[in-house]
Amino acid sequence: MPYLSLLIFLPLLAAVGVLALPNDRPAAFRWVTLGTSLLNFALTIFLWVNFDKTSTGFQFTERADWITLSLGPLGVVSIDYFLGVDGLSLPLVALSGLVLAVGAISSFEIREKQKAYFALYLLLSASIMGCFVALDLFLFFLFFEFMLLPMYFLIGLWGGKRREYASIKFFIYTLLGSLCILLVFIALYLSVADPVETALRMGMTDARTGINGRMLADFENALQNGGIPGDQVVHTFSLPYLLQPTNYLPDSLLNLAAGNELFGYPARVLAFWLLVIGFAIKLPAVPLHTWLPDAHVEAPTPVSVVLAGVLLKIGGYGLFRIAWAVFPEEAVASAPWLGGLGVLSIVYGAFNALAQKDLKRLIAYSSVSHMGFVLLGLASLTAEGLNGAIYQMVSHGVLSAMLFLIAGVLYARTHDRLIGSYRGLAVRMPGFVALTAVAFFGSLGLPGLSGFIGEFFALMGTFNSPYLPTWMAPVGTLGILLGAAYFLWALQRLFFGPLWSLHDPNVLTDLTAREKAMLIPLAALALVLGVLPNLLLSVTEGAVGVFLANF
After folding, report:
1. Core-most of 106, 364, 504, 527, by most CB within 10 Å?
2. Which residues contact 153 (CB under 8 A, 6 or more apart)?
3. What is the rounded distance in angstroms from the CA atom of residue 45 to the CA atom of residue 43?
4. Residues 219/199, Cβ–Cβ less than 8 Å
5. β-pairing verdict for 59-70 and 234-236
């Protein structure tokens, strides 16, 4: 059963179905989207339950020839439809399933242009899943780019007063990152040969069943000694092949042994930093973060939920899966700079969050700070730091989704996100306050909640890292202190004391059944991951171990 393909094509088919429905069936748009999202989430749970934690390779793989084109003396273009998951990608696939289902429930509040909205939401869902399961970089890039269009329209058409500015800014920033990534992907493609397809084309074996270790060793020797003509080389975007230095053409731009330069700098170093810039924009890391607060403030609540809960994680995933994995030597050499950017993001984001009066903007800057822990953990290149980075991505996905839903609850009642417009909400909204407390305390890193685990391991990895100066860990803890300051200030200001509001207190009602259906599962997961971290760590540790073997 092609489970991973289903994660992609079910939302695509549902989007077509929504577009085919009559315009006067808004309820059908909502329920088709929700049903598809819940089905996809159920599929991710199935994958989680059936995932073999003892295996360190990719599982549930699907592979088929897609594009093959001879370019004469330049070799052969070969692009595969290649999907798979491992301990790194599976947690993010499961997180995506949950957040997209929650976002679908939140989307019930959309009342304008509903057919277009729900069709775009389903297209976005398919693109997100595709990014996390693609093992061919061409396929990854297609999904990565395709996300731009739904997000641009979802912000630009259903956002706030400055939605045009926010959507254009988001598009330009992300497009810039995509162009940086594209240049590297092209260079990698031209530098790497597919050993299996090239061997078949050369007649070194007459069938895939004849592929064995000895044959591959013969191929590698022939490749490195110039024994394979250029017109016989089958180039590849396959990520597993890109990770093997023996598959790089001896005279290629990104061959490590060749030591090629561009503009007076090592070509591999330039390629690595282009990937860092591209994925750091999506993360986002300071100083490439400025698009995020505007996008969050202007986006409708469900889009903010998906943006914070899932889309930012593609940046961290890309750094881990592609930049670090393909260029390990460059990651080691650049670790102090990358760790410094992580610390800068943690502290700068926290200070900016402390200065905000708009609840959504506060949450947006807190995301910049919390994703800084991801970059710091990745830069540490330790088992603790890398596991912590993955854990932080999952935890932040859950908690940030909660936070934006909480902001959406207030906005739905009063159309006002200013913290100073409320006081003493606990009197009228006790259930809302309880779930808000879980999100706030989880986000500030309280032990017993998921946020603590990710930050703890990221900082521990930083302390133990042979590549990072020891001062980065204590400075990074400043982000936790500041996080406590701005979240506790917001909690105190909004919920305690006598009831007061700029708006009619009668509209400040407690959570509806729909709002509880969104917030309670997320709160429960934050508690479970805080108490039982092995549920996640047992899945990630194998992939992290394999990853570190290359360093």
Report:
1. 364
2. 116, 120, 167
3. 5
4. yes
5. unpaired
> What's the rounded mean pLDDT across residues 507-531?
95
What is the side-by-side order of every strand in the sheet holding 234-236? 59-70, 76-85, 234-236
In whole angstroms, what is the distance from residue 42 CA to residue 224 CA? 47
Instruction: Sketch the domain layout of the chain as residue ranges.
Output: 300-551
Contact 135, 64 (CB under 8 A): no
Give the pLDDT mean for 150-173.
92
Residue 229's contacts (CB-CB under 8 Å, 6 or more residues apart) are none
In 300-452, beta strands by DSSP E? 422-423
User: Residue 259: left (phi > 0), alpha (psi -120 to 50), or beta?
Assistant: left
Residue 56: predicted pLDDT: 83
- Residue 514's pLDDT is 95
- In the chain, count of helices (H) and strands (E)? 24, 7
For residues 152-173, give the mean pLDDT: 92
Tell me if 66 sits within 8 A of 225, measured CB to CB: no
CB 336 within 8 A of CB 467: yes
What pLDDT is attached to residue 200?
73
Helix 513-531 / helix 450-464 crossing angle, nearest 10 deg? 40
pLDDT in tens, 387-413: 999 999 999 999 999 999 999 999 999
CA distance 165 to 168: 5
Instruction: Give me the sign of the Cα torsion angle 321, 282, 375, 437.
Output: negative
Integer distance in angstroms from the first to the last C-alpha of the chain?
Answer: 36
Residues 466 and 404 sit within 8 Å (Cβ to Cβ)? no
Q: How many angstroms separate the Cα of 405 from the Cα of each of 190, 309, 538, 549?
A: 45, 11, 30, 40
Task: Compute the distance between CA of residue 75 and CA of residue 213 in angstroms, rounded to an integer.
Answer: 24
